[in-house]
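The following record pairs a protein chain with its ligand, SN-glycerol-1-phosphate.
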Amino acid sequence: MTLLDPENTGPEECSRIALEAERGGTAAIMVGGSTVASNSVLDDVVKSIKASVKVPVILFPNNVSGVSKHADAIWFMSLLNSSNPYYIIDVQALTARTIKQYGIEIISMGYIIVGEGGAAGFIGQARAIAYDHPELALGYGLAAESLGMHFVYLEAGSGAKQPVPLEMVKLVKGNLSIPLIIGGGIRDGETARRIVQAGADIVVTGTIVEEAERVREKIQEIVKGTINNRHTG
Ligand code: 1GP
């Protein structure tokens, strides 16, 4: 999946990148960013993307400002390892009624910040799980599953120098029954291939897509890395 941040990129550029990403084989466009502060800016970006692509457009909200009625779906996510209950349950309670009224698809997800954590970790006041403690990531992942959440996302932070380590992906996926999403710092097809081989069901790339001169080719490279490389153990 391709992540676009409306704070970095305007509506026209987002729709151009989204279309190229779709042509490159992305499964969905995710829209969000740690510092999104304007619903109207988000609305404009989502509308513009929706007008140009057929793949689903899924919100990836950072706060109450991450909600738009123009999307197909929303990751209804809880930052499980935040030290602030606001990001665990309060922002969800503040937005749940509006999201239900919008009628967009609601997809529950346990969001776990690991490693450096980037801006998401800072804003979300996460107690980021160090890379050498995969067992802690597993604990939070299993807690998400046991609470009835449908997806788990291990987030290294946008632009992370090192993506989520393979050992952490393996341990979490090896003990989890729900799909695992991995994002943060994935920049090439080979890294995507290794992460999928370790057990990721979904790989998210953002920064590299916003920076790439040839978006379609970059996405093709990453998608190629993920196809037919599924972990089967
Ligand atoms: C961030 O996991 C996503 O929320 C994507 O990270 O920007 O490093 O690809 P990148």
